[in-house]
Specification:
heterodimer, A: 338 residues, mainly alpha, ABC transporter involved in vitamin B12 uptake, BtuC, globular
Chain lengths: 338, 241
């Protein structure tokens, strides 16, 4: 039975990777300027089928797709790490204040009229600082349990949410406020080469590290502190390390694309549904599904209507439908079981 | 709070820590397992202070089975047992085919049904889960196995099955067993030495068959402690192992 489960996970991984490639190629075709698969293939091969097609592929769609894929991967893996570390399947990248902290940084950057890249930098460091604040609060309560860490995260998220509201209230209603609102709803429309570079330089390395330690460390963290230490894992040190990596992935994602919710919550559930709870088996699926999901959502966001729909609205809509489907599939089981 | 605890545990012995709920057994067990530092005094493992071992090196000496409910472990039994093999490996360890075969072979040897391996720990019955936890401790290949009230939540049949299983494993492997419980009958079943804890202190210590007697237990459980044969009530128990 265990071997059958592993074989099934392998099959789903192959399907997931195929889906990633398929969504990627289809997304290059779809948009306000539709391209045929032949035109896309020609552009990818460096062919000479026209400047417009090449520009659409390489300058408009490719950077967005790469960014969407990597953000989808980042949020999915971060969500899986949070759920494993907090031993709570409702944990998500938003839970310890990182997303809301990054939102404050983005809102402040927009309010101050910073250049695009500096807005993202501001968002990244604000997200990381919010995480540090969450940890400092938890230490202030002198309680090492995960529950107090979640409570601290909720408090920090609330604080950051209030800060964003205050920033919105003083922002220029005609020029700045719409930008803040749109950015915070999530979008890949502002992705630049620098954003793509930051994602390419960071996400694969972080994800590769987390994947390498998934078999022993992440699975041990899922057992809780006593079991983990008994199996030879320094629980507190490794918990700090994996949360740091997950925080970097989350803060970077929000800094580039705004608050894109639900991917980090739902994709790990889908991965576990097919591969089981072992992080070593489910994380590769989360990577494949997360990338495909976000690319699909971004493509829908820019092609459903004449004006772009915030991708956070699409991920929310599809993510909630997916989550309801998962719960319906698992009905009758104890929550959290596959 | 524990007071004036002074103990030496010999290798290859069974040691039962007996006492009421809240007497300090779990605290003492965790201190001996190196999971909690004592507020004063020291614990030495193989001649070295236990605090000098990091989690990885300590896990090669001590396998600890906590009391806390493992009903929320969502890994499969096989994945849980595989983790027991990882304590001597680095952080990038991935279970190999050889590791899986070793787990299956071990499960077969201790008659853990193969069907359980593919099921999640949270789906197992209490008794099955406890067997899996003890199997994990044995697979860890540590010299000492410390179990904190492993029979607390089990029915009578599973309680005695766990005790029997432990006794057989200890006889075959020669490991040192530290076992905490609150039922003196378990101490008698398991044999070895009993360390009775009462209000944070060691009340008595010695060979279980000689020391676990009503006259000693009255100080813990009250004046009504007696041998079953003297009781006016019908006492139901399971026969010999």
């Amino acid at each position: 039975m265990a071997r059958a489960s592993r074989d099934r996970a392998g099959l789903w991984l192959a399907l997931g990777l195929c889906a990633m490639v398929a969504v990627f190629l289809a997304s290059l075709c779809v948009g306000q300027y539709p391209l045929s698969m032949g035109e896309v293939a020609d552009a990818l091969m460096g062919g000479d089928n026209g400047e417009t097609a090449n520009n659409v592929v390489w300058r408009l769609r490719m950077p967005r797709l790469i960014a969407a894929c990597l953000v989808g991967v980042a949020l999915s893996v971060a969500g899986m790490v949070y759920q494993a570390t907090f031993r709570n399947e409702l944990a998500s990248p938003d839970i310890i204040g990182v997303s809301s902290g990054a939102s404050v940084g983005i809102a402040l950057g927009l309010l101050a009229g910073m250049p695009l890249l500096w807005i993202s930098v501001s968002g990244f460091f604000a997200g990381v600082s919010a995480m540090a604040l969450t940890l400092a609060l938890a230490r202030l309560f002198r309680n090492k349990s995960m529950t107090i860490l979640i409570i601290s995260g909720v408090l920090v998220s609330g604080l950051m949410g209030s800060a964003v509201s205050m920033i919105k209230s003083v922002a220029n209603a005609d020029t700045v406020l719409p930008n803040i609102v749109f950015w915070l709803m999530g979008s890949f429309s502002n992705v630049s080469a620098a954003h793509v570079f930051a994602l390419v330089a960071t996400v694969p390395l972080c994800v590769a590290f987390l994947l390498l330690i998934s078999g022993k460390i992440l699975n041990s963290l899922m057992l809780g502190p006593e079991h983990a230490r008994s199996k030879g894992v320094n629980y507190r040190r490794w918990r700090a390390i994996v949360l740091a990596f997950a925080t970097v992935l989350t803060a970077l994602s929000v800094a580039v694309a705004g608050v894109v919710g639900w991917a980090g919550l739902v994709v790990p559930h889908v991965a576990r549904l097919v591969a089981g709870h072992s992080a070593q088996r489910s994380m590769p699926l989360a990577i494949a599904f997360g990338g495909a999901f976000m690319m699909a959502c971004d493509t829908l966001s820019r092609s459903l209507t004449a004006s772009e729909i915030p991708v956070g609205a699409i991920t929310g809509f599809l993510g909630i439908i997916l989550f309801i489907s998962i719960l319906a599939f698992k009905r009758g089981q104890r929550y959290g079981d596959n | 709070m524990l007071r004036d605890i002074s103990l030496e545990i010999e290798e290859g012995t069974i040691n039962v820590f007996l006492g009421l709920n809240g007497c300090g057994k779990t605290t003492l067990i965790k201190i001996l397992a190196g999971l909690q530092p004592p507020s004063s005094g020291s614990v030495r493992l193989d001649g070295r202070p236990i605090g000098g071992y990091d989690d990885a090196s300590r896990s090669r000496y001590i396998a600890y089975v906590p009391q806390s409910a493992s009903g929320d472990i969502s890994l499969t039994t096989e994945d849980f047992l595989l983790l027991s093999l990882s304590n001597r490996r680095g952080p990038f360890w991935v279970p190999s085919k050889g590791d899986r075969e070793r787990v299956r072979g071990f499960a077969d040897r201790i008659r853990l049904p193969e069907a359980l391996l593919g099921r999640k720990m949270s789906e197992l019955s209490g008794g099955e889960r406890q067997f899996a936890m003890i199997a994990g401790a044995l697979l860890q290949d540590a010299r000492i196995i410390i179990l904190d009230e492993p029979t607390a939540a089990l029915d009578m049949r599973n309680q005695y099955a766990v005790l029997r299983f432990l006794k057989i494993c200890q006889r075959e492997s020669g490991k040192t067993i530290l076992f905490s419980c609150h039922d003196p009958n378990h101490a008698l079943r398991l044999g070895g030495d009993t360390v009775a804890i009462h209000e944070g202190r060691i009340l008595f210590r010695g060979e279980s068959r000689k020391t676990v007697r009503p006259e000693n237990l009255k100080r813990i459980y009250g004046e009504s402690v007696m041998n079953a044969s003297d009781s006016e009530y019908e006492i139901i128990t399971l026969g010999e192992f």
